[in-house]
Structures are given as C-alpha cells and as structure tokens.
Amino acid sequence: MTDATAGPDVKTGPTPDNAIREAEAASGPVLAADGTPLKRSLQRALRREKMRALMLISPLLIFILVTFIAPIADMLFRSVENQSVSETLPRTVVALKDWDYNSGEAPDEDVFAAFYVDMIEAEEFKIHTRLGTRLNYEHTGISSLFRQTGRAVGRFDTDEYTDAFVDLNEAWEDPVTWLNLMQVSGIEDVLPETASAWQSWSRIVEENNDVLAEEEPEDFLYTTLYRDLMANGDAVASFEGDEAALLQEAAAAVGEWEPVSLKEQFLDIDEDWADPEIWGTIQAFSPNYTPGYFLNSVDLQMTADGISAQPENQRIYLLLFKRTLFMSLMIMGSCILLGYPVAYLLSNLPMRVSNVLMILVLLPFWTSLLVRTSAWKVLLQQQGVINDILVWLGIVADSNRLVMINNQFGTIVAMTHILLPFMILPLYSVMKTIPPSYVRAAKSLGATNWTAFWRVYFPQSVPGIGAGSILVFILAIGYYITPELVGGTTGTFISNRIAYHISSSLNWGLAAALGTILLAVVLVLYWVYDKIVGIDNVSLG
User: Is the Cα torsion angle 270, 272, 274, 280 positive or negative in sign?
Assistant: First the structure.
C-alpha cells in the first residue's frame, strides 16, 4: 500500500495502472507491439469487448423492445389519446371556445357554420362515423346522430347562395376564378372561412384524383364566401389582389340576399342538435389528450360540468378491481395449501418415484386450457358429476343441488387447478436444495416432528413459497379465458372487461386505461411484497 502522499492508490493499493504511470514518468509512454501507447491500446480493446457484448445481447434487447416495451408504451398513449374530435372537427373546436355550456342554450350560427364545413369534409372521407362512435362512449345516442347528419348534410339548401353568386356574375361558376382568388397572398385575412373551406375542398378533390381547376366548386364554398363578405366588408373593400373587382361586386350585393340558417337546417335533421349536452360533450373532449378514460375506469365520468360519478347502475369497474384482487389472492392461497404438501412429498421421495409423480404434475401443461376448463363445467354444474355423487351419498338433497359453476367458487376451483403446477415447481426446486440432515439433527436434539418442520424446514422453504406466490398471483390477476367460461356474472375478472372492450365494444382507450391501472396495481403490490418479504428472498432453487 502507498502512503497518504502517493496519490489515488492510498485506498485501492497498487494496480496495473501504477506500473504504466511509473514507466511513463521514467522513460515516456509504454508502447504496445504495434507502436501505439499501451494505455490507448487497452482502452480500444476494452471498447471492442463492450461493443461485442452489446452486439451479442442486441437481438434480445430488440425483442424485448418490440414485444414488451413498445406495446406497453402504446397502451399508455392510447389511455390518454383523444385526437378524434380535434382532427375531425377542427373548425368546430375553435368556434366552441367562445360558447358557454352553462348558458343552457345551443351554440350560435357561427358554430353551426363551422360544423357544417367540418361535416362536409368528414362525410366525404367517411370519418364522421368513427367520431360518433368515440363520443358515443361518453353520451349515448351521438353515434346515430352523426350517421344521420352525415347522410343529410350534403343536401342542405345552401345552393341558394350558389345560384345567387352565379346570377350575379357567371365567373363565380368557373373553377379557375376560385383557384386564382385562393392563391392571392393574404387572402386568409380577407376571407378566413372561405380559405379554410377551400383547403377542405382541395383535399376532397385530391382524394378523388380530380383536377382542382376543372372541378365545379361545391355549395359549401359559396356559403362560407357569403359569410365572409357579410362579416369582412371593410377588408374586402380595400382588397387589391386578383379578382378584386369581382369580389367587391359580390360584397356590395350580398346584403340584399336572403340569409340561410344553417342552425335551423341541422335542427331539421334532428332536434338533438339543440341540446347543450351534445355540444358540451364535443367541447369537453376537444383536447388532444383526456383523463376521461381513466375516470371511466374508476366509475367517474367527465362531463361539460366537470367530473362526476357514474350512474349507480353503471359503477362496475371498482367492483371488478376489488373482485380481481380478492379472487387472485384466494387462488394464490389455495395453490399454497394444495401445492406445499405435494412439493414436500415429491422432494422427499426417492428420485425414481418422484420423477413418475412429477409427470402427473406436468400433465395439465400437455392438455388444452379449453379442455381443462370445459371439464370443470361438466364436473361442477348442478347436474354434473360432483352433485350426482353428493346426492347419491345422501349429503345433498336432489332438490338442493349445489351451485358451483358460473360464480366465484367455480372460477377459484378451475383456476387453482390450472395454476397449481406454477406453485408446485418453484416449491419443489427449493425443497430439493434443503439438506435432510437439518431435520434429523433437530430431532436428535429433542425436537418433535412438528417443531423440526416448523422451526427448521419451513423457514428454508419460504423462498419457494415467495416465488410461487408471485408467479401464481400475477398469472391469476391477468387471466380471462377461464373466468369467462366458468365465472358467470359474479366470477369474472377485470381482464374480462378489458378483453370485451378490445374485441367487442372497440373502446380501446378504456381498455388501455383499465390495463394501465391493472399494471400499476401489480407494480404497487410487487413493491409492497418486496418491502415486507424482500424480493432477494425469492428463489427458484
């Protein structure tokens, strides 16, 4: 060891770097065989080793990223993603910012005008039904309302504006006139609604693979032009770009025309468009990200008034979470009670016998999960084998057969049978490592069989119990096939509801939120288990 004045080696002692530093101080840097400094050569070799190790594990890292990290990240994003409203109704979202839901009245004409253009484009691209489905999760009936409106919005009586503009000057019928007008710099300031509607028209024409300069403009363009000329007369009067004379001529004439109410035409389609609740729902879910899915997952809802509780007959998710945790713990406990004696027996029998019995433990793995679950339906039903035996023995009256299926009992029994090997195998692997001499030594010192087991053998098997418990609990909390088949209405898990929203209702946002909460619960329970038991004490043998 060096003394206190020798530098950084006071605590670590001499290292190979000492020799290199001393040689460098005495006669310059030590060189490798190729003439480069030895220290640099060692660093380069170390980097190559690290890169080689990284290349070896890169397939595993990519696999984990693609199959584990990416799906979880996508689930987390879907649980808050809410871009359907803002992408489908961008003008309506902006117009609704000035509308007060608490007024108790439907929005004004400006909102309906923005909604009119948005619906024209959405119907053309067939995305209004998707938006209706999304909002229907929050307000029942909106989906059919959007479908009905999409079919009718193209037949509005706005052709009166079209006829009026064409009668005033036939140039308005020419697509080139519109094309030249919309290409003028600063036209967005003079005709904001028309310029925005023109962008939608351009996307529609492009989607149909048509030529913009050859397609006759639709009625909604004339409607927005009328509104801009009525609202921005001063800006139009000072306009000096191409088609200025044509535009100023129209601005001078529009004041004499009879206005067409878009709001009334929407109400003619369905009076629900006068309901502030409809517009409040659209307004509440206008942001790109929303906590609405998470609120629904805990039996709350986000409305135009704020956060409120779900109707009492719709509060099911907290109940399902509690039931899932309770039944998973019951299944874990059943597996411990049944698996511990089996694992103890297997670990203490001669190897030849234990190997044969181990085949019986592993046999369920070679049988279809569906077959095993269906077998329990046959055994547990009221006219099944178990009830028939109980009636034959006189234990149960024929009129009072036990209800053991389509409830929590049936789920616990079937899942205990399915997950039992996952408890036995960790226990067996740990118990095989416990020397039998420890128990014999305890007995030789006067301990009874129970004392020797409880004070000597059992503490050494706790790591196996911990490993099996974690394995069984995590598998049980995410199971959905068996509860779906034998659980009925009282024995299903939250995972069954997640599967329903993914495959049937297609409410992927709510399914992602439920999955995220379930993941968080598992991580919290894992942390609690680590604090109480210690994850270091878990062993697979």
Answer: negative
